[in-house]
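Entry details:
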Amino acid sequence: MADQRVYQAPGVDLGQLGQALVEWFQRGGFEAQAMSAPGGGVLVQARKTEGWRQFVGMSAALNVSLTKTDDLLTVQTGAAPWADKAVVGAVGVLLFWPALIPAAYGAWQQKKLPDQVFNFVNQYILSGGKVSAALPFEAAPAQEGVMTCPSCGHTVREGAKFCDHCGARLEITCPQCGQALRPGARFCDHCGAKVAEEA
């Protein structure tokens, strides 16, 4: 029942990404915490302190497991009991069994929260960690005809060359072969050439 996405993320620091997720959840009215997980991973938990408790249960938390192997970042979402940070053994269970409370996870899926988490992680990677908690909490997955600015997280018209909110350049091309690249690309997906990073 858990959802998983894998990202190419060579420079991402799991601790910083975990903290950015915590701040983003807190901006959305969630209680959130990040903790180290076995194998060098990070586990982020979020739960609503009011309202949703009656719906998903007092101890139900949305879990976001962050693990890295070489340049690949694996993000897995699921539901499990809220953990006491001091209980290290429980973290291992939560990391490897991310959907222990199916009803709670189903509720979060209806609210599109896992999709929003994946969208946040994607924008965090594309922006080189500059999005942080500034990305609007209600940001939905990309809609047809629009895209999200990797610098500020605001929605812009698809095909725009610059963000009409922060002015960031959105259209980049490969210096080697001239192919159009997605915003935030570090390498060309056509010829493999390294893309110069902006200062």
